[in-house]
Amino acid sequence: MTPKKDVSKVRKEGKRASKKDAGKPKVKRALTPYFMFAQENREKVKVEFGFESKQLGEIAKKLGEKWKNLSDEEKQYYVKLSEDDKKRYEREKKELEAREESS
Predict the structure, then answer these.
(1) Burial (CB count <10 Å: 0-12, 13-18, 19+), residue 37
(2) Has residue 65 been placed in a domain?
(3) Who contacts 79 (Cβ-Cβ below 8 Å, separation ≥6)?
(4) Is residue 3 a part of any domain in this protein?
(5) Can you give the CATH number for the domain in which 40 is found?
(6) Tell me: the pLDDT tens digits for 8-47?
(7) Predicted TM-score of the model (pTM)
(8) Quick one: 78 exposed, middle or buried, by C-beta within 10 A (0-12, 13-18, 19+)?
(9) What region does 27 belong to: left with phi over 0, alpha with psi -120 to 50, or beta?
(10) Is 42 domain-assigned?
């Protein structure tokens, strides 16, 4: 019989940043259209349904339902925001890489 691995340790080890990367400036990743929608509508959903900050799962469910009910035309607004954010991410990533190379 093979010994069981402690899964919690495996996950933590996989997510640790290496020491050489610690303290390095990082570029914030681009958001997907859904996350743009969620970011813009989270407070509205909390107020509309009377959620407290502790009810993150319920808030996420309502946001998911609202996202699914949006028409394709309404989703295009968030797709455009996401595309703009992706351009920002690529630009900032190139700038950071250029600064690191010149250092």
Answers:
(1) buried
(2) yes
(3) 33
(4) no
(5) 1.10.30.10
(6) 555 555 666 566 667 788 999 999 999 999 999 999 999 9
(7) 0.72
(8) buried
(9) beta
(10) yes
